């Protein structure tokens, strides 16, 4: 178990280093950092002095190591556009994105698993057919269209829910949450649904396929032959085995939820890191772009790690040293 | 004579397919007495598993019991509502499948699978059920049962897993155990032990066994009577010793390898030429007629019923005319 975790940690570090290299290349070679920092009227000699002082004339390897060192301390430089430390900027936007992603993931997981199980257990019912057809639409419609459609129905036509922004937020000192106010919660509904739909259909189809597969196995037949109740078989034996592979995929999806939030945040003008990234790209705010890249990579790597460990905990076959006596 | 524990009467299982209705087993008639071991042999696809599944009510749709009855101690069980049939499975009829490697849920501890099954059928507390589970593992010959019970299936060898499966099938003390090729997937070296354990435990509990296997040796040693199946029907059924010594049906005789063919050395054992027909191509008349060394004209037209030409022995073959019935 420990060896496994150490091995996975080492892999994660390698991945992060690779992403750091890409981020560094963007950071250092897309545009000219000095030109972005200073006005055009600064004399060339002064620019040269700054260049030296910032170490931009050092060998690339040294610069890269410095970049990694700074990154590890959460240091990504100053945003060209907002003249604020990038890390501070991202951290201030993070709660909005995390709350949105978490709400979406919960919606996707709960409805995905419930609908997946339902359509697997009652494949012939009319409702299952309807759900399956709807899910096809769900995966094929682009996120922004769904978002705009929802805005049109629930904001413009019905006027029930706000179409943009985060509503009122409560500052907890280290975290600005929208979950404690009515407008905050109302504002969360449409973007969360929009962001969840794709993952929801994915999880649902996965759960359904897995569940159908599991229901055909010998151990389910043997469970039936032992006279276990339908309930114990479907929601105990079958569901547990279904969820093992689903955990992996779903966990990994959480990463994409955060990454995909870019589109949803833009459609709903949600003040998260995704919309920060989009505006940064528009004005070539390179430090923010590089930091965002590192951030998303870190999210994926961390989620991967947690998922692997979780998988390990759930499936006894992977625990070689688990149990009392392995023979 | 006592009442049979299980009676199967005219059991017919059909599968509707795109190309018409396939009859997987047809007109199965058999009785199993309390505590009796009935062997069942036949080539792969003869309908042995289908018969067992029909008895325990586990035919996979779209398959269905089209005709016939299954009676357990005189009570019909083939038409029970699903929940009543479920209560019979495991409680009054236990089942052992072929492959112990896939019969156990890999994510559940042995203890959980046993306790869950015991408590589904018997009003016991968790502790009492666990105690009973450990006792069962002891009985089926798992060393150090109290310690091994919390292990997962993958921590046991194939033979040990089949012992666990036997414990699971017996944990609510059923009157009948259907064992569908319980040793086919196992290493030859442990097959005899598994059969022995199963037979002994059932004997101690007075449980009857329907033992499906294609090992005539096992049948000869274990079973009281044997049913020989061919193309979805019973070809012959009778006491094991009689059937082995004096096979009546030409197919049984072929299985025993005892039919001398013309021009062949008499003590050379022969195989039966040809193969069992597919369900969609069962010939008219006797299903065995294209392969039968003693085929007659009538065999190609009329299908022989299962008759009793000698008391205690029944055979479906025109060689034994109805007049010979006892
Ligand atoms: N789902 C199914 N649909 C159609 N035919 C089936 C199905 N399952 C089994 N059969 C057929 O039923 C017959 C009996 O099968 P089975 O009872 O498993 O044979 P055995 O156990 O004697 O080897 C076989 O010919 C098989 O092809
Ligand atoms: S009925 Fe005819 S074909 Fe069939 S086994 Fe008897 S002799 Fe052979
Ligand atoms: Mg079979």
UniProtKB/TrEMBL annotation, chain A:
Family: Belongs to the binding-protein-dependent transport system permease family.
Alphabetically ordered keywords of this record: Cell membrane, Membrane, Transmembrane, Transmembrane helix, Transport
Recorded GO CC terms: plasma membrane
Superkingdom of origin organism: Bacteria
Membrane topology: Multi-pass membrane protein
Record-linked Pfam families: BPD_transp_1, BPD_transp_1_N
Membrane-spanning segments: 12-30, 100-121, 133-154, 188-207, 243-270, 290-314
Primary localisation category: membrane
Protein's name according to its UniProt entry: ABC transporter permease
InterPro entries: BPD_transp_1_N (IPR045621), MetI-like (IPR000515), MetI-like_sf (IPR035906)
Domain ABC transmembrane type-1 as annotated: residue spans: 94-311
Subcellular location: Cell membrane
A GO BP annotation: transmembrane transport
Automatic annotation (TrEMBL), chain B:
Tagged with keyword Isomerase: no
InterPro entries according to UniProt: AAA+_ATPase (IPR003593), ABC_Ni/Peptide_Import (IPR050388), ABC_transporter-like_ATP-bd (IPR003439), ABC_transporter-like_CS (IPR017871), Oligopep_ABC_C (IPR013563), P-loop_NTPase (IPR027417)
Key words, A-Z: ATP-binding, Cell membrane, Membrane, Nucleotide-binding, Transport
Cellular localization per UniProt: Cell inner membrane
Residue ranges of every copy of the ABC transporter domain listed in the record: 8-256
Coiled coil: none
GO biological processes: peptide transport; transmembrane transport
One Gene Ontology cellular component annotation held by this UniProt entry: plasma membrane
Entries under SUPFAM superfamilies matching the protein: P-loop containing nucleoside triphosphate hydrolases
Example GO molecular function: ATP hydrolysis activity
Gene3D superfamilies per UniProt: P-loop containing nucleotide triphosphate hydrolases (3.40.50.300)
Membrane topology: Peripheral membrane protein
UniProt record similarity statement: Belongs to the ABC transporter superfamily.
Protein name: ABC transporter ATP-binding protein
Species assigned in the record: Szabonella alba
